[in-house]
UniProtKB/TrEMBL annotation:
The lineage of its organism: Bacteria, Pseudomonadati, Pseudomonadota, Alphaproteobacteria, Hyphomicrobiales. SMART domains: PKS_ER. It comes from the Bacteria. CDD domains: Zn_ADH6. Keywords: Metal-binding, Oxidoreductase, Zinc. Residues 8-340 form the Enoyl reductase (ER) domain. This is Zinc-dependent alcohol dehydrogenase family protein. Belongs to the zinc-containing alcohol dehydrogenase family. InterPro entries: ADH-like_C (IPR013149), ADH-like_N (IPR013154), ADH_Zn_CS (IPR002328), ER (IPR020843), GroES-like_sf (IPR011032), NAD(P)-bd_dom_sf (IPR036291), Zn_alcohol_dh (IPR050129). It comes from Roseibium aestuarii.
């Protein structure tokens, strides 16, 4: 099969013909229809993610069609499926408690095994997979495996966002844009924060009530002024110290900070304004992924037309275009997200 392989960190991915993946007993092999290029992939490509080594194939936001099914598989050849990026074992205490996104025995394609920057991907523990609705195109479904599901779970479960509350979103990449769209759908008043004017313009078009350019003003101060005292919920969607502190400091009394951006490598440990946490009685939530049982609530919202995710995808690219997208993440990125839909070029 054709695949984009890491041979050296921070260098162009190597387009190679490699062996097709073996089918796991507990899962399937998918012919990949689409795979998103996510900022989390950048951590692997740059060498910051401890589990990603040279020879790895990235790609954790994918959907596709079953071409081979294992003897214990839940699905059959021909089924079209969406894959969450966390594949939980289904047997451990975390899985039995319904918090499979914290499963200690999880598999994460693109990080702990080969991912979907390739024609085919092996998916163990296929009880995590969800059928792709006919009304949802693969280019949009690819983002459901990470950016959209992650935002949905963070807002509805971890932060318990309520209608009428102010939601600040720091970073308007894939997860941040999804939070803008979903926050609006949940009845929140959304403030988008970024340093790229074009990305803020897109966030306003997608439902943000206000936009703050953090390169021009103190973001936390601006949000406190807009909201008349501070946001009730704030999401950090980059995984860096400056935006994590801005997210904490923009909150009002009893506010809730959600850490969704991945702190890894040099940002795995941060210096945070704990005095603000203490003085304002803030709650800090970590949020990564979403348990697969929550998919129906999100898919029903999409199928009813209550959210439109199509403006989030601004670029369809070939496999050869993934390197340029990853390099762009070394600095401010353009608006919207990129999805690989051509795996031969």
């Amino acid at each position: 099969m054709r695949a984009a392989v890491i041979r050296a960190f921070n260098e162009d991915l190597s387009l190679e013909t490699v062996a097709d993946p073996a089918c796991p007993d507990t899962g399937v092999v998918l012919k990949v229809s689409a795979c998103g290029v996510c900022r989390s992939d950048h951590h692997g490509w740059s060498g910051e993610h401890p589990r990603v080594k040279p020879g790895a194939i990235l790609g954790h936001e994918y959907c596709g069609e079953v071409v081979e099914a294992g003897r214990l598989a839940s699905y059959k050849v021909g089924d079209k499926l969406i894959a969450p990026f966390i594949l939980a074992c289904g047997r451990c205490q975390a899985c039995k408690m319904g918090v499979s996104q914290t499963c200690p025995d999880q598999v994460a394609p693109g990080f702990t095994c080969q991912g979907a920057y390739a024609e085919y991907v092996a998916v163990p523990f296929d009880h995590n997979l969800v059928r792709l609705p006919d009304s949802l195109s693969p280019r949009l479904a690819a983002g459901l495996g990470c950016r959209v599901t992650t935002s949905w779970h963070a807002l509805t479960d971890r932060a318990a966002l309520r209608p009428g509350e102010w939601l600040a979103v720091h970073g308007t990449g894939g997860i941040g844009l999804a939070a803008v769209v979903l926050g609006k759908a949940l009845g929140a008043r959304v403030i988008a924060v970024d340093i790229v004017a074009e990305k803020l313009e897109l966030a306003l078009k997608l439902g943000a009530e206000a936009a703050v350019n953090a390169s021009e003003v103190n973001a936390a101060e601006a949000i406190r002024e807009i909201t008349g005292g501070g946001a009730q919920v704030s999401m950090e969607a980059l995984g860096v110290t400056a935006t994590a502190n801005a997210s904490i400091e923009c909150l009002g009394q009893l506010g809730r900070h959600i850490q969704v951006g991945m702190p890894v490598g040099k940002t795995a440990r941060m210096e945070l304004n704990m005095n603000a946490v203490y003085m304002k009685n803030l709650a800090l939530f970590g949020s990564r992924g979403m348990p697969s049982w929550k998919y129906p609530s999100l898919l029903e919202l999409i199928e009813r037309g209550e959210v439109d995710l199509s403006p989030m995808v601004s670029r369809e690219i070939g496999l050869s275009g993934a390197s340029a997208e990853l390099k762009a993440m070394n600095g401010p990125t353009p608006p919207g997200t990129a999805v690989i839909t051509d795996f031969l070029n």
